[in-house]
Amino acid sequence: MEIHSKKYGLFLGLSLIFTFAAGFAIAEIHHHEFVIEPKAVSRLCRTQQIMTVNGQFPGPTLEVHNGDTLVINVKNAGKYDISLHWHGVRQLRNPWADGPEYVTQCPIKPGGSYTYRFTIENQEGTLWWHAHSKWLRATVYGALIIYPKLGYSYPFPKPTREFPLILGEWWNRDPMQVLRQSMITGAAPNVSDAYTINGQPGDLYGCSNKDTTIFPVEAGETILLRIINAALNQELFFAIANHQMTVVEADAAYTKPFTTNVVMIGPGQTTNVLVTANQPPGRYYIAATAYASAPGVAFDNTTTTAVLEYKSAACKTKNGSPIKPILPQLPFWNDTNTANAFTAQFRGISEGKVPLEIHENLFFTVSLGLINCSRPSFRCQGPNNTRFTASMNNVSFVLPRRNSILQALYQNTPGVFTTDFPPVPPVQFDYTGQVSRAMWTPSRGTKLYKLKFGSHVQIVLQNTNISSIEDHPMHLHGYQFFVVGSGKGNFNPQRDPANFNLVDPPVRNTVGTTPGGWVAIRFVADNPGVWLMHCHLDVHIGWGLAMAFLVENGFGELNSIQVPPPGLPQC
Ligand SMILES: *[C@@H]1O[C@H](CO)[C@@H](O)[C@H](O)[C@H]1NC(C)=O
Ligand SMILES: *[C@@H]1O[C@H](CO)[C@@H](O)[C@H](O)[C@H]1NC(C)=O
Ligand SMILES: *[C@@H]1O[C@H](CO)[C@@H](O)[C@H](O)[C@H]1NC(C)=O
Ligand SMILES: *[C@@H]1O[C@H](CO)[C@@H](O)[C@H](O)[C@H]1NC(C)=O
Ligand SMILES: *[C@@H]1O[C@H](CO)[C@@H](O)[C@H](O)[C@H]1NC(C)=O
Ligand SMILES: *[C@@H]1O[C@H](CO)[C@@H](O)[C@H](O)[C@H]1NC(C)=O
Ligand SMILES: *[C@@H]1O[C@H](CO)[C@@H](O)[C@H](O)[C@H]1NC(C)=O
Ligand SMILES: [Cu+2]
Fold first, then answer.
1. How far is the CA of 384 from the centre of ligand 4 (A)?
2. Per the confidence metrics, is the pTM higher than 0.70?
3. Which is the closest atom of ligand 1 to the Cα of 190?
C-alpha cells in the first residue's frame, strides 16, 4: 500500500494498470473528471435547475476493485461552495480526501477545483459519494461500488446481474432555498415532495410514468440490488412485491445472510440484497416510503416506486393498456417494531476482531432541542416562538467559518476548535423520560474529543426525549465500527454490557439510535485525523447534531496523517 500511495503521483494524467512489485495483486488507478454544474431536469411535471455532476442525476457510478486508487478532479462550475465526501471510505491517514466542508477542507469555491486522491484499503461492497456542503447532497450523489480484488469472489453465490438502487428525496424547489428559509425562520424545513429511486419518483405521483426506473430480470435468476439511502432527511422502509430479499452486506461489510420481506434503511446506510425472480413472470413494484419515528413531526408520506420486470412478462393487456404492477405491503410509517426487528437480524462475519478491552468508555446523548426567543419574531417560528437546535452531550456543533478544523490543526492555528468535548453528559438525567423544559437548550461550540492512536473506543449513543423522541442515523467518518448492542430506555452500564454481542456484531459506518433507546459501538482508533460524527439527517446536522474526533498520530510516518495534497482549497 505504501509503495502504491507514494508512486501514483508519477502517473497523474495517465490511465494505466499499475502492478505491485510482488506481482500478486493488480491495482488500478481510476481518473475521473467531476464537473459540478446546474442542469434543468423535469420531475413531477415541473422543470427546474438542480446541481449535478457532469449533468447526470444521480451522478456517475464509480466502479472499482478493493485496492484501487481513485483520482477525482472536481471542478466547481456551479454557484455554491461545495465539497464531496466518499461515504464510508476509510481514508486511512488521509483525512484530506474525506470532504466535509470546514471539517477536513475548505469548500471548493465556484470556479475552483480540487483533486481527491485516495486508495481503497481492505474494503468491498456498496458505498456512495455525496456533497458535504449544506443541502447540496439532495441532488449531488452517486454510487461507489467496490468489487473484490481480481481473482477473489463474494462470500455468496455470484448474482447474474447487479444494480445500484439509490433512494433519494426530491423537492419542487431548490433544496438550498428550502434550507435557507428554515435557517431564517428557525422552524423545521419543508418536507420533500417525493422520494426517488435512481432519480425517478415513479408512477404513484399522478404524473407521467414513462420515466419510472425498470429493473429487468430473467425468470429464475438471482440479482443483487445495491440499495443506498441517499435521502436527505428520511429513513425509509423498502420492499418488493411478492419477493423476499436476502441481506448479504451493509455499509461495505458482509453479513451473515438473512431473509426479509422489508428493509429499513437510514440516510447514509447501504444494504445489499439478493433477489431471486421466482414468481410468475410479471411486473412487480419495488417501493419505498417513510419510516418516521418522531411522533407529531411532519414528514413526506408519499411512496416512490420502480418496477421489477420479468423479461418474459407481457407489458400490455390484450386491449393494449399497460399492466399495473402489484404493490408490496409496506409497514405503517411509525412501525418502530418492524424497523427494530429488521435491524436486530444483522450479524457480521467479524469473529475475533471486536476489541474486548476498552480504553475509552464514552457516553454521548443525541438530542434535538429548542432555543427560546424573548419575544415572537419572524426568526422564531419553531414551536411556541422558538428556534430548533440539536446537540450531542449538550453541545450544539458549530462549523468553523474561516478555516477547516484539519487545516487549523495542521497549521497550528489557534481559535478554530477546542478539544474539550465531554466524554459523558455534563448533567445526568432521565434521558428518555420527561426532561425538564429548562434543559432543552444546549450550549454551542466547535468541540472535539481527542483519542490516542490505537485506543479501543466504546461509545454508547443515547437517544433522548428532549423536544421529541426520534431515531437518529449516526455516521462516523474515517471508520467502520462494530455495533455491539442496543436497547430501549436509558443505557444501564451495570446490566446492559452483559448482553453485548462481542462475537459476530455487524460492522457499519452509520447506525440508528432507536427512538427512546440507545446503541453501543466499538472501534480501534487506528486512523489519525479529524473525523466528524453526525446525524445523517441533514436537517439535524444543520442544527448541530454532530461532534468530531481528533485521533492523534501514532509512532512514525506510517501511523501519521499524510502531508496535505497539492491544491487543497483555502478558506
Ligand atoms: C414551504 O412551504 C410553505 C407552505 O406550504 C410555502 O409557503 C413555502 O413557500 C415553502 N418554502 C419553500 C422554500 O419551499
Ligand atoms: C399524507 O398526508 C396528507 C396530509 O397530511 C394526507 O392528506 C394524506 O392522506 C396522507 N397520505 C397517506 C398515504 O398517508
Ligand atoms: C402509529 O400511528 C397510528 C395513527 O396515527 C396510531 O394509531 C398508532 O398507535 C401509532 N403506532 C405507534 C406504534 O406509535
Ligand atoms: C407550547 O405551549 C403550549 C401552551 O403553553 C404547551 O401546551 C405546549 O406543550 C408547548 N409546546 C412546546 C413544544 O413547548
Ligand atoms: C417525553 O416528553 C414529553 C414532554 O415533552 C412527555 O409528554 C412524554 O411523556 C415523554 N415521554 C416519555 C417516554 O417519558
Ligand atoms: C424556555 O421557555 C420555557 C417556557 O416556554 C421555559 O420553561 C424554559 O425554562 C425556557 N428555557 C430556557 C433555557 O430559558
Ligand atoms: C445544557 O446546557 C445549558 C447551558 O449550560 C443548560 O441550561 C441546560 O440545562 C443543559 N442541558 C442539558 C440536557 O444538560
Ligand atoms: Cu438526527
1. 6
2. yes
3. 1
